[in-house]
Design goal:
Blueprint (H helix, E strand, L loop, with lengths): L3 H21 L8 H31 L5 H13 L1 E6 L7 E5 L5 H10 L2 E5 H4 L4 H7 L3 E3 L7 H15 L1 E4 L30 E8 L4 H4 L7 H9 L5 E7 L10 H21 L15 E2 L4 E2 L3
Helix pairs in contact: 2-3, 2-9, 3-4
């Protein structure tokens, strides 16, 4: 027979699960009174960071290039939201193309705070109030995954970002998942590595939210604003391990598809080890990346 504390924990987990699944279906899940308090306090914390770091950033830009304040601001914003980041491995500091799995908009805050990297992220994130502006502050390159006619323009923007920022992160799954799955990697954004810029390495990155992954994940039909409010209203903190895996030279692989396959293999191995079990099929349809969970097929171009 379960103890009182165990039964209470199970009821809490059931409520979390019910709300998460409702959010993934696109339903609006209202915040509790205490949730609104936590959301408000965290929003005020972000505002305080803005008041401190944004003037410092623009003042620094008057005298020098490469301000450190966006990285610091994003690092502390992730902490205010509740992320407790642990870095595993050593991130390269320049001339590096990070390839990462993707669960949440929190990934961008935490990863940029850890390494100062710029990002390629989906256009929908740019439309999230405050979060979109924060990403632009870090010179994120926003792309529309379904806009195949704009790939050349996006690749040019990516090349400029790599030259300008020393490091760039891409999320080649083309969407966010739940931390229990890994989709086929879209290789179109890796065209910048054909041929590889001189001296640039690829470093796979595995993001691990542990048992909180499904709750934090922004999946299904949930809006970005709704997910941001839900995450910022949650009780307590959550761990995020950023695993920087062994870098490799893209020159050792024949083209972008081979580079994508190598990075995915490394990330999958690390994710399976972290979960302690095999990955499962992703449970949501993602039209923008042509993914259907029933037959497990996807367009991996």
């Amino acid at each position: 027979m379960a103890s009182g504390s165990t039964a209470k924990a199970e009821r809490r987990l059931a409520r979390y699960t019910e709300r998460r699944l409702a959010a993934a279906r696109g339903e609006k899940v209202p915040l509790t009174a205490t949730g609104w308090v936590r959301f408000t306090l965290r929003a005020l914390g972000i505002l305080a960071l803005l008041i401190v770091f944004v003037p410092l950033h623009y003042l620094y830009r008057i005298f020098a290039y490469g301000s450190p304040f966006p990285m610091l601001f994003l690092r502390y914003t992730a902490r205010v939201i509740g992320a407790r980041v642990t870095i595993v491995g050593t991130p390269l500091r320049r001339d590096v193309f990070f390839i990462s799995n993707h669960l949440s908009w929190v990934d961008i805050l935490a990863s940029a705070g850890a390494s100062g990297t710029a990002f390629v992220a989906k256009q929908e994130l740019a439309e999230v109030p405050v979060i979109g502006w924060l990403c632009r502050l870090n010179r994120t390159v926003f792309v529309k995954r379904e806009n195949r006619l704009g790939v050349a323009e996006q690749i040019n923007a990516l090349k400029e970002a790599l030259q300008d920022n020393w490091s760039v992160t891409v999320f080649p799954e083309g969407t966010v998942t739940d931390g229990q799955s890994l989709l086929p990697f879209k290789s179109s954004m890796l065209s910048v590595l054909e041929p590889p810029p001189p001296g640039v390495l690829v470093q796979p990155v595995m993001l691990d939210y542990g048992e909180n992954a499904e709750e934090i994940g922004w999946v299904g039909d949930e809006s970005g604003l709704h997910n941001a409010m839900r995450v910022m209203a949650r009780k307590g903190t959550f761990p995020l391990r950023i695993n920087y895996l062994e870098p490799f030279s893209p020159e050792d692989h024949r083209g972008r598809k081979a580079i994508a396959a190598k990075a995915r293999e490394e990330i999958e191995e690390a994710l399976v080890a972290a979960l302690g079990r095999p990955l499962r099929d992703f449970q949501h349809v993602v039209d923008a990346v042509c993914y259907r969970p029933k037959d497990g097929t996807a367009d991996a171009t």
